[in-house]
Records
---
Amino acid sequence: MTPPVAAHPDAPRTVLLTGAAGLVGGFLRASLPKYGYALRLFDRLPVAGEPAACTGDLLDPEALAAAVAGVDAVVHLAAIPTEAAFPDILAANIDGTYRLYEAVRAAGVRRVVLASSNHAVGFGERPADGGLLRIDTPHRPDTYYGLSKCFAEDLAALYADKHGIETVSLRIGSCFPEPSTVRMLSTWLSPADCGRLVHAALGAAVAGHQAVYGISANTRGWWDLEPGRRLGYHPRDDAEEFAPKLLAAHGEPAADDPEFRYVGGAFTTF
Ligand code: 15L
């Protein structure tokens, strides 16, 4: 068994992971226990190989209340993870996240780590001077999906200001086993760095609501990672090792290609 690595001394210990059956949920089920967290798993679908996982819907108040009872923190991944019809996004991502925060408030949980997305700022443009995209760039959603992540971040800010619930919103790039497009040479978040990021976000001192970009230490990254570093996120992976293969297959994108120009890449074209 892998020994625990660098746990924060005052980090939460019992953590509810919503969306535990999804891809990122699977990465975190593998990595977070190595940092010493005890995970409680929650998903609409059964979680493969995890008979103790709670199967329930975010829109079911009783299931949600039972899931949050007694945990120190919540990592909230549960959502439709891509563009979809507005009524579906409204139910799963917008109402679902509202219900989650209400349950968190009622249960007295202090910390949420929220899976936001780069698509909250998807129409943000690559700085022309070659600089980094700042974390305080205004919301510019590229889809209803991105809009739901803007809502989630703003909801987190409301519950911080009104109820003292601390949230770190992670504007995740492309969290996959490896990058599969040229854009992902910039936006990739490796599974191991995803674990590092969530661990940092669970344990760091934050006042209220704070957003950070979630990508690896990519040579071609153009989103400012400094806010994450200040929380203790020190990524170790770099998508550049995949560059020769991807560039040979696809070539360099043109400067006016949405994949190159906008944070959200192809999502701006749907
Ligand atoms: C996301 O937010 C999606 O959940 C994921 O499926 C990818 O499309 C990713 O963004 C991305 O921008 O690559």
---
Amino acid sequence: MDPPSANPTTTVKLVLLGEAAVGKSSLVTRFVNDDFQENREPTIGAAFLTQKCSLPNRTIKFEIWDTAGQERFASLAPMYYRNAQTALVVYDVTKPASFIKARHWVNELKAQASPGMVIALVGNKMDLVEQEDEGEEGGEDAPTKKVAAEEGQKLADDEDLLFFETSAKSGLNVKEVFLAIANKIPEESRRPQAARPAVEDGRIDLNARQGAHASSQNCAC
Ligand code: GTP
Ligand code: MG
């Protein structure tokens, strides 16, 4: 049972978009369960999880739709971003192609999604390049940073997005992304009708659903 609280709860639908393997599911797992898995399986269709952020005057309950980045699932994306109040558009800081894809998602959201949607641009896998900056031995095959923070910041400034560089592996800035989004949700925000898309059987990751139930009593931030 939730602890008694005088604060009202606002339910917010959030969608994650981005190229395959940039770390969308890993960011959600870090936020919801404070956990990280190396070599995780790609998402099939989408996964649904929930997590709360406690603000001084209200609680934000995120209903999180973690979409699959593989191209074969691209046609499903509108079903998940429709009626979403907020989106995380994720790229991998070591993969310039994923930043181009992120730009594409931002354009698509601006054209097709709810007006006023709060969008956060997220450059993930910073741990890979932080090692390099600190002069640690990453080995010859260690990835280098190929998307500069300035590029991400410029896109964010041009398109009025929040911008963070994160690591799902170390936890760097993960709570901060969700907290910043929570703070940008207007007080009067109401859950849109039919917020949940009609998801076909087999397209939801059932393990992720269980994770959602297990974690829904805790606030992450
Ligand atoms: P799709 O579901 O296919 O769209 O991929 P995704 O964007 O959900 O990526 P996922 O979270 O499955 O991560 C892909 C791989 O990158 C996994 O092997 C993760 O362990 C790894 N990974 C994710 N985030 C990070 C990170 O911040 N740092 C490092 N080093 N690896 C990460
Ligand atoms: Mg995934």
